[in-house]
Fold DUF971 domain-containing protein.
Amino acid sequence: MTNPESPMVTALKLKRKSRQLEITFDTGETFQLSCEMLRVYSPSAEVHGHGNPVLVTHKKNVNIKELTPVGNYAVKITFDDGHDTGLFSWQILHGLATNQVELWENYLARLRAAKASREPLIDMAVKYHK
């Protein structure tokens, strides 16, 4: 489940307006992770592509819809885009939090290389005239 040396999460606070998840560990450390970063680095097979990570795009405005505790070792995050298949263990959350600057820069570089965007896709209402 978790590495014994991995800190335990003691508090999760969702800040919907700023699209941030505040995570406090038993070490006393508190981090803010953006919902977008959590979404694009989801530990799900859908994102990790069974060893070949998929570049997740258009998630700048994604938010968290629900947090569901899984035992005392992880949280299931349901995002407002419907994604809900990754289990974020305390070890994964701590790794994302402590490496977020490097991970974010890596993500932005991958977007640039793929000529992809963080910007959300625009919903369009199309009306057909007869």
Notes: The chain has a mean pLDDT of 90.
